[in-house]
What we know:
Layout: H1 4-28, H2 32-42, E1 59-66, H3 72-83, E2 92-100, H4 106-119, E3 122-124, H5 135-146, E4 156-161, E5 164-166, H6 168-175, E6 183-186, E7 206-210, H7 211-219, H8 221-225, H9 231-241, E8 247-250, E9 255-257, E10 272-274, H10 279-288
Parallel strand pairs: 1-2, 1-4, 2-3, 6-8, 9-10
Antiparallel strand pairs: 4-7, 5-10, 6-7
This protein binds 2-acetamido-2-deoxy-beta-D-glucopyranose (4 copies).
Amino acid sequence: MFDKNISRNLILLVVLPLALLCIIFLFAIPNSNFQLKFLSSCQPPSLSSPPDSAPDPELKLLIGIITLPEKYERRQIIRMAYALQKPTIQNAQIDVRFVFCNLTTDEQKMFIAMEILTYQDIIILNCTENMNKGKTYTYFSSLPHMFPGKQRPYDYVIKADDDMYFRFDNLVASLRDKPREDVYWGKGFAPMIKDPENPPYLVGMGYALSWDLVVWISTSEFARNNSEGVEDIFVGMWLNIGEKGKNRYDMREKMYDFHGVEPKDFPPETIAVHLLKNDYTWAVTLGMFNVTDQLPSSRFYDIYG
Ligand SMILES: *[C@@H]1O[C@H](CO)[C@@H](O)[C@H](O)[C@H]1NC(C)=O
Ligand SMILES: *[C@@H]1O[C@H](CO)[C@@H](O)[C@H](O)[C@H]1NC(C)=O
Ligand SMILES: *[C@@H]1O[C@H](CO)[C@@H](O)[C@H](O)[C@H]1NC(C)=O
Ligand SMILES: *[C@@H]1O[C@H](CO)[C@@H](O)[C@H](O)[C@H]1NC(C)=O
């Protein structure tokens, strides 16, 4: 343990000069853009969304990736994959969050607290890990309580598996011109489709609900009574019984399971690739989408020889 005085001295030693530096830079450097950036780096990282002064995005999207606490490596691959994807469509806010149930070990509590402090991209639900025991219900029904007082914090909420990779440009292009209410968007369960425009449910790899449907799920007694089951079928059932999700969009072959390693297996109109169960399939997929093409040459490494 730190002695209280020592730690206070440490704080003075570290924080005071930093604060001074901030002030000096603020007043000494006329470029106002730089000032703003510098000012924000002088403040502690914020857990909230972008500042109010930013123009309201045309599309606000929450992607909740349902995963398990111990899958540290997978989270890191997904984080980098999305951090390196620069959407050319500017006016969209896409928040990627990792979602899991209660932590169970002291190691998880330590490491995941560190992840939260570093990345601020984790949501921990009040549930116990167990496949098809209502985790999806808990996810959707908890969200409205996490944004109290907000009319519509997101236009759409996506539930995605952790073996799913989205192409942001195509995702945004598909959602931006859709209605903002009563929307159920994803990939229809093909074999069961009688009416192709109206699939009974969208498969669990990743689907979007407009915010009003998320709120509706959180208040639906039928959904609460029937929260435990094969999650994608059940979500479809809640909506069908509640006569919701009338704006239903099937992306069909734009969302697909990993099925080959040739360029033709990753067409440009791809919205998402699913079934990325291991490092190999992630590496092939990210390679096909040229994720590391910008890697500069350097004296410090020679990756591709
Ligand atoms: C979490 O879930 C448990 C069991 O369902 C419940 O007893 C408890 O009140 C919940 N806690 C919160 C903070 O909602
Ligand atoms: C999850 O953890 C919280 C905090 O430790 C606890 O209050 C809650 O009962 C737990 N819920 C479940 C469902 O285990
Ligand atoms: C939900 O379950 C409760 C208790 O079993 C029952 O009284 C109620 O009618 C059910 N509601 C719906 C909408 O199914
Ligand atoms: C990746 O790069 C190759 C070669 O430059 C190009 O043919 C292909 O269209 C690119 N793929 C994507 C998705 O940008």
